[in-house]
Design a protein that fits this description.
Elements lengths: L19 H29 L13 H25 L3 H29 L8 H30 L9 H26 L2
Helix pairs in contact: 1-4, 1-5, 2-3, 2-5, 3-4, 4-5
Length: 193
Amino acid sequence: MTTALLPNTAPAPILPRRRQLLFGSAFASVAWAMFLLTLVGMYLQARQGDAAWLGENVLRLTQPNVQFGTLILSLFTVQWAVYSIARNDRGHAYLALAITLLFGVAFINQTTFLYDEAGIKLASAEGPLFYAVTGGHLAMLIVALIFLALMSVRALGGNFSERYPDGLSAAALFWYVNVGLYAVIWLAVYIMK
């Protein structure tokens, strides 16, 4: 008995790939945003009731503004990477990913400098909430950086192309959410002191 196709039957259509990584990143991003926005709300509520908030500590705006500018520039480079990999332009995708990773490392460096410059003690009233908000964001930005680095390695291995750019799109989505959350932190913690 043969298993040849009948002459009038066509092969089954190829179904589009599922986007589990993109949906998983979206759900993780929403969960992370809800957690960090709750911390920001707690920070704002505690600050409202304390007249001596940041009394002896000085938070200059230069460093947070430079951090925010660095993250805004990284939005363009991460979108450039997604755009390039979706058009199978691997050279530009690798360059954009490298620049984005460099911006992420620069942000980490700037945050550690800000912590040294501000000198906020954990024993003060604002210390635990300040470090919970900014340190929590820094931790998740490091996670986003690792996620982006892993997707960069997969892109170098040839796993992503114009047919399947979802890995880089998922990492970019997580990066966008982290940059948006820093905009909220920038406004709530640094601008509205």
